[in-house]
Amino acid sequence: MNILHTISFYFFAFLLVISALVVVSGKNLFRNVLALGLFFFTVGGLYFHLNAHFIAASQILLYVGGVIVLVLFGIMLTPNIADPQEKQTSEQKIPALLIVFSLGGLLIFVLLVTFLVSPVKFIFPQPREIISFAKILFADYLIVIELLALIFLTTIIGATILTREEQG
User: pTM for the full model?
Assistant: First the structure.
């Protein structure tokens, strides 16, 4: 059982890295969004490996089910996005590299200071805490979540109406 767990972990990690590379280096926007969906799905799979089932389910439902669908609607409703004359590459590679290396250096600095100066004790949530969180989320805040879903739905319908081409 342990070897199967290890193999599936490395499989998800490999898919995660490959899909992330496709997202940032691909030329076709639609395929990039599909690779982003695979990225979010594999992150959810890694959460399952960490026994964080609630976070994994939330990751898959919210990001794969919601964000990717919203981005795909945006792509489909954008006029001339598939036009070969439209430029789909970025001309800002040097500022992007500068930001990436700056944030990467800051992350490495914070990790080194955090783990070298004072040892960190990790506290893992107990199952009863997750169950109580889910009860609060789906009992006390259910109306708020449903209202947010209704607002998102009206936003999508409004965007569809605004971008629809006039007939006649």
Answer: 0.62
